[in-house]
User: What shape does this take?
Amino acid sequence: MTRNGALASAIVIAVASAAAQGALAEAVDGSLARSVQDAPKANQLVQLQRRPGAPEPAPPRAPPRDPTAVSPPPPTAFPGDFLALPDRWRIMEALGVNERLYDPYNQNTLKGDRPIFGEDWFVVLSATSDTVIEPRSTPVPVGIQSGEPGSLDVFGDTEQFLFSETLLTGFSLIKGDTVFRPQDIELRVTPAFNYNYTDAKEDRFLFADAGEGTSRSDGHVGLQEAFLDYHLRNVSERFDFDSIRVGIQPFTTDFRGFLFNDNQLGVRLFGTRGNNMWQYNLAWFRRLDKDINSGLNDLSEPLRDDDVFVANLYRQDFPILGLTSQATVVHNRSRDDAQVDANGFPARPAEIGFTALRDYDVTYPGLNFDGRIGWLNLTASGYYAIGKNESSLFTGEEADIGAFFLAAEPSIDFDWIRLRLSGLYASGDGDAFDDKEEGFDAIFENPLFAGADTSYWIRQAIPFIGGGFVALSGRNAVLPSLRSSKEQGQSNFVNPGLTLLGAGADFDILPELRLSFNANYLRFNETAVLEELRQLPSIDYEIGWDLSAATIWRPFNNQNVVLRLSGAALVPGDGTDDLFGSKDGDDIFYSVLGNIVLVY
Assistant: This one.
């Protein structure tokens, strides 16, 4: 062996011996048994590294130990058992992932990505700007005091224009690490600020007082969310839970918002079971009045004497894999007081039929489905309305409520194309003067169905009596319920009902660009109520064709910037012509919707 080789061997043996001595030194710290186990390992290392032919070294022995002596500190050559490290959020910064507070899409403390204080208190700030520009035309019934010179003074100029800007600002304070389990506490507040401008061509269309003119500028501040969410308990190791939420909160009773889809004041108990296979809700809401021009909650008005009670149960993968089923029971109790809206129109009671406040109790049992059946996407809903109205719309007498609703939307995906069919049936009332009310009406609908607010029929409020008195169908609503308004009016079960048959297609041309097309055929199921109100001997069932198209562009391929441009037209059928006629050959009603949504 060379001199250098011998020196290297000596160094290796010295290092190995030091390792053995380090293991033995732990005995001084009260771990003698472990040191004795580690010593043979060190000796084996020495044996592996010793020069061939050299005698085996003697096994190391533990040094004598005085049990009364104070143990010395651990050797400085080895680190302690624990090292102080940054938390996992700040480790990301060490790896080069740094936050920018103006960037809501990446690491951001203001979006709940890192505790704001303590170890599990997070804050989430949000802001949404929703800008709407909407030229449109609708039928405009007018009175003899408001028509243009030379007009028939029955139906006026159809042209209107709407601009609306809504800013929603949200603040959430959350306790709990929500990566694998529900949050412990959440406090959320979402005020909303709206400015809207509307221009029409007829007096008394925007205001009950004809002297107010044909344009309106208005603003409103509402509170859309203000609730405390408290996590009561976990009931399984997979974090099935029970929680309670109190305050103004969003809630929808079904997958598409057919019956009740609103932000209202209430108490909600909810949770999951069976590894989230079961979900349940038990809720009570006392309804807030809304501002008629913005649709936002109006806290300046007293609470309505209108209660909504909800119990529902969801089951995933039932009855087949991929389909979620929901059973629900909703009860609506209404004892509302009289109300005049901000434009001077009577909201309750509606100026139609037997003009009187109505007290009613109605219960809606329902079944809803959403998911897939193999290659078929399917959403379906069914409700039955049963109850009692103390003052019927046409007789003023007590009447029984019995009405039903069915809707389904199957669709098929072919790569970047989705083809859809839509079908809806809401029963109508065939006799306005009997003691049965058979026209189905919702509590507060906002349906995502058959093109949603791209559709002319769903998007536009179609006046039945001039201005804001009574609408044939409400804004963002599908049912022809003959209310004063969806926002402030009461449900009305004496209505013509509706059949909708539609087809549509969505084309994802690019990840950030979608084109949508919809064609819906609409007809009344019963016209007796309309004939009585208009004093016409016969009104046809056909409403007409609703044709619409929309372009949705997300330039950054996320939901932070969404631009939408859509157009819709209602090609009137014989029933619409019977109700509204035509003016100067203008037989087609249109709507153009420009919408810019910016989200932080």
